[in-house]
Amino acid sequence: MDTQTGRQDAAEHFDFLIIGAGISGIGAAWHLRRRFPASRFAVLDAMDGFGGTWWTHRYPGARSDSDLYTYGYGFKPWRGRSIATAEEIRRYLGEVIEENELAPHIRYGHKVTAADWSSQQRRWTLEVARKAAGDTVTITAGMLWMCSGYYDHGKGHTPQWPGMQDFKGQVVHPQHWPQDLDCTGKRVVVIGSGATAATLIPALADDAAHVTMLQRSPTFFSAEPWSHPLEAPLRALDLPEDWMHEILRRAHIAKSAEVVRMSFEQPEDLRQFLLEQARSRLPGDFDVDKHFNPRYRPWQQRVAVVPDGDLFTAIGGGKASVVTDTIECFDDTGIRLSSGEHLDADIVVTATGFNMRFFGGVPFRVDGAPVDFTQRVTYRGLMIEGVPNMVYTLGYFRASWTLRSDLVCDLVCRVIAHMRQHGLTMVEPALRASDAGMPRLPWMDATNFNAGYVMRAQHHLFRQGDRAPWTHQMEYAEERSILPAVQPDDEALRYR
């Protein structure tokens, strides 16, 4: 070890390095271990444990917003309710790690701070800060698999309002929830109305004096059962677990596909269905159109799930309320709204979303040149034009993340197998002659999906083209047949 620089003398080398030990990284590790058992690989994660989002999100009531029969892996049956708590999901991921002996391959507290590709050496060189040792080491790899998702786990998104410094109470972001925070008997204002707010409010309502959901504009909510209606009758048949998993997985996929279809083809019918769900669970004098009828079409932003309508139950029971207004300023006792109304608060929760950060915020270089991702397009939502031997996993917005993760893992492993079969050491997506002059479009088309966290981040995200294979963010109904049909000798992939 060089004591002056804190760097090791010889770099440790792996065939594959996976960055991120969340649901994507654990899934990638399972696939690599199964398909290439003789290869050396490691999983690096900056945090102190596995789970990614499920490690970070420890606020009251934290749970899935997708059903676990599709959010769980295709290779491991889910055995619980369709909607699961964060603790249940972490337990499931822990079982995958234990059952497949992945723990020796995972290194926690390892934060990648730089990634450099050398075409001459055919390898990535990573600078990695080790939390426990307090030093920096160099690790090299033949292929890099980015599974860090798109959350900035270090800092949630919190707007700055006038007067926040004058507030005498406590301001908390759900992503950084203090484990000793006691809301019992407190007046709580939750700013925001997305999936996190919809989770928090029912969890806090029983003990808090009152919980107010303060939203600038409405969100669509869907009241879904904790368990699929088919689950109880199927369990009565004493079916094998893998049968149960597959049947319920298909049932959830079919339902999700129908909702997505309606969001494009019959958006007003879907709107009325969601509004009627709310009306049937709320008092007759509640203004559903004001508080739960967004300007955008359903699924142009996420439809937040409320298990068994628990959010509506809290509101109907008087333990929670909804205010649709904008913030003028904070003062020492709460929040003053543009309408003149004042919300008294002891605790303010800023459930105002997160910041997007792809590839863990790692600076990349290829043959000494910094990579400006905003000038490059994606290849099928899993590789980047001109960046060799680097793949990444991103899931769906309208379907479970892991449905796409499984598809990406299959295609990546087929590409690796192709390289090994033909003695190839380098692969990168490259534009074809027919792609000359192709426009470089934003990462996301706002008419397709325009959530605030996406729109805020567009300027520093990579791009997409106007044709295959340079597009992404398709629906599962399309990609479940498209990605398995992609051949590793695709003309847009250049091998050496």
UniProtKB/TrEMBL annotation:
Belongs to the FAD-binding monooxygenase family. Gene3D superfamilies: FAD/NAD(P)-binding domain. This is FAD-containing monooxygenase EthA. Its cofactor is FAD. One of its GO terms (molecular function) is monooxygenase activity. Keywords: FAD, Flavoprotein, Monooxygenase, Oxidoreductase. InterPro entries: FAD-binding_MO, FAD/NAD-bd_sf, Flavin_mOase-like.
